[in-house]
Amino acid sequence: MHTVILYATFSGSGKGVKVANQLSKALKEAGIQFSIFENEWPADLTPYQCAIVTGGDGTINYYFNKYQDKCLPVILLPGGTGNDFYWTLYGNRTISQQITDVLLLLEDKKPMTYKAVDIVKCVIDQQKTKYFNNSLGLGFDGAVLQNMQAIRLIGGHLGYMLAVIKNIFTFKEIAYQLRHGNHSSEIKATLLNVANSPRTGGGFMISPHAKINDGLVNVLHCSVPGIVARLGVLTKVERGKHLGQKNLFYFPTEQISISTTAPVNGQIDGDLIEGKYFEIMMAEWKARIVIFN
Predict the structure, then answer these.
(1) What's the number of CA atoms in the CB half-sphere (13 Å) around residue 255?
(2) How far is 19 from 178, CA to CA, in rounded Å?
(3) How far apart (Å, rounded) are the C-alpha atoms in residues 254 and 217?
C-alpha cells in the first residue's frame, strides 16, 4: 500500500514534526515504503492509497480543504496544540498505539476499516468557501484566537484557558440574525458556536451531544454579559455541564445562516476568519477516517 505522510512544521509548536519523524523512523525500520511531505504538500494524491496526517485540528482541516472530495482514507496522529478532533475519533490512544496499528495495517496484517465522517461547508460573505470538521465559533472564539501566540507558547488546554479568561473581562456581546429551517431570530450572544464534534479548545466539551456522522451540526448560543456569570459558565463548559443554563440555547440543524451588521472575527478549526454573513450546511462529500479496534 503506497502511503503518504503529510505534516507541517508549525503544528503544535514543532510537535507535528517530532511525531512525523517518529512515524517515519518506525516505517523505515519495518521496511515499509512511503512518501513524506513537510509543509509543501503534493497537488494530487492519485499515486497514493492512504494518507497519514500528523498534526492538530488546524492541520487536518488544511488537509480536508486542500483535497476536498479527492481526499484519501486518512489516519490521524496527534501532533497539535489541542488535538480535539483526534480525541473525538480515537479517544485517549497514545501515539505509540497508533503507530503500532499503522505498521500492522501497512504490512497487511490488519484490514483497512474507516468511518465516513461529516464535513461542514461554510460560505463566508457569499464569496469564500471553507470546510470544517470540528467547529466554527464567532465573536468570542475569534477574540480568543487573536491571543493565539499565548495559546501556542503555553500549549493545549492551559494556553486556551488563559486566553479565554482574558476575554471574559473584555469581550462585548454581538448582535446576530440566525436563520435555520423555517425559524428566524435576532440574538445578542457572548458565545456562538456551530459544532460537528463535541470538543474544542484542547478539551472544552462545548457541544457534548454533537456526532461526527449524523448529518447535523449542533448550534450553541448564549448571552452572558456579567463577568462573574461568564466565569461560572466557563467552568461548566469545560466539563460539558453547561446545557440547560439560563439564556443558553442548543439545537441540532442541517443548515444555518448567521449574519451581522458589521464584520466579526471567528475561528474555523483554529483558523481565524472574518465576515458578516456565514452560510453553513453539510458538504456534498464525506471524509474517510481510518479507525482501529
Answers:
(1) 13
(2) 41
(3) 6
Give phi and psi for 21, each to the nearest 5. -65, -40
Same domain for 103 and 174, yes or no, is: no
190: nearest Cα among 137, 147, 150:
137
The pLDDT tens digits for 1-41 are 789 999 998 776 788 899 999 999 999 999 999 999 999 99
User: Which residue in this structure is represented by grid cell 476568519?
Assistant: 273
| Torsion-angle region of 146 (φ positive above 0: left; ψ -120 to 50: alpha; else: beta) | alpha
Angle in degrees, 0-180, between the axes of helices 227-239 and 156-170, rounded to the nearest 10? 160
Q: Measure the CA–CA gap between 132 and 67, rounded to whole angstroms.
A: 13
CATH number of the domain at 13, please. 3.40.50.10330
C-alpha separations of 220 from 187, 208, 264 in Å: 12, 11, 17
- Report the pLDDT value the prediction gives residue 63, as an integer from 0 to 100: 97
Is there a contact between 254 and 216 (Cβ–Cβ < 8 Å)?
Answer: yes
pLDDT tens per residue, range 223-280: 888 888 888 877 788 788 888 888 899 999 999 999 999 999 999 998 889 999 999 9
Q: Cell 492509497, residue?
A: 49
14, part of any domain? yes
State the DSSP code for 212.
T
On the 0-12 / 13-18 / 19+ scale of CB atoms within 10 A, 219 is buried
Strand partners, 138: 192, 266
**What's the residue count for the chain?**
293
Q: Which three cell numbers stand for residue 65?
A: 480543504
Instruction: State residue 195 phi and psi, 5-degree precision.
Output: -120, 140
**Residue 104 shares a structural domain with residue 138:** no
**Is the pTM for the entire model greater than 0.85?**
yes
